[in-house]
Design brief:
By secondary structure, the protein is α/β, with parallel strands linked by helices. The chain has one domain: HUPs (Rossmann fold, 3-Layer(aba) Sandwich), CATH 3.40.50.620. The chain contains eight helices and six strands; from the N terminus they run ααβαβαβαααβββα. The protein has a six-stranded mixed sheet, sandwiched between helices. β1, α3 and β2 form a beta-alpha-beta unit. The radius of gyration is 18 Å and the shape is globular. This is Adenosine 5'-phosphosulfate reductase.
Length: 249
Amino acid sequence: MPTASPSAVEPTPELLAELAEASAKLETATPEEIVAWAAERFGNGLTMATAFGPEGCLILSILAQVAPQTYVFNLDTGYQFQATLDLRDRIAEKYGLEVDMLQPELTVPEYEAAHGGPLYQTNPNQCCFDRKIKLLHRGLAGRSAWMSGIRRDQSADRAQSAIVGWDKKFNLVKISPLANATKKDVWARIVKEGVPYNPMHDQGYPSIGCWPCTRAVTDGEADERAGRWSGTAKTECGLHSVEQQGSGI
C-alpha cells in the first residue's frame, strides 16, 4: 500500500532517467500494472484528473481495485453537461470512489458578467485557462505525479505521450495508463466490464467537454475530437497539448 506523503519533485537527471526506464518497461504492461506501479512509486503524491470520458471512467474502475485511496478530481467549469455530472454519482455508487469537483472562484454568471458576456465565444483559450488550467494547478498542488486518460491515437499532440514522463507544463510526473490503447480497446473493456459511461457517447458525442464548445460529430468525420471547439483552430483545452513557449496552454 502507498505510504509516501505528497511532495514536490524536481526533474533531476536521476529522476528523468528513472522515468524513461520505467516508461520503456511499462510500454507493454496492462493499465492495471501501470496504475499499480504509479501508486507504489508515488503513494499519496499520486492524483488523477478526470473529465469522465470513457478512458477516465475505465481508469476509475481500475483505481477502485488497485489504489482506491488515490485522490481524484474533476475540473467543474460550470459549463459541463448534466449527463457528465450525473456520471460522477453513478461512478461513486458502483465503485465507492468520490471524485472531488473543483470549481473556479467565480460562478458562471459572475464570470460572464466580469467579461461582458460568455468568454468562450470570443476568447476560448482564456476561458479554458481560467476555468480549467487554474483549477488543475489547484488540484495538483503538493502532488508529485498525476494520471490522465489520454490515448496516443486521439490527436497529433497526444501521439507524443509517454507512459511515464516529466510534465514540463505542470512540473510533476505524468502517467498515462492508456496511452498505447486504442478507442476499440477502451470500449471493449467498458462493455465487457459494465463500466458506467456518459450516455451522450451513444448520441454522436465521442469526445465531451463543456457544452458551449462541444457538438455531436457526423458520420463523415473520422476525428473523434472534431466536435470540440468546432469551427476554430483550437483542438485542446491546454491540459495535454504540447508545451508552447509562454503560457504553455
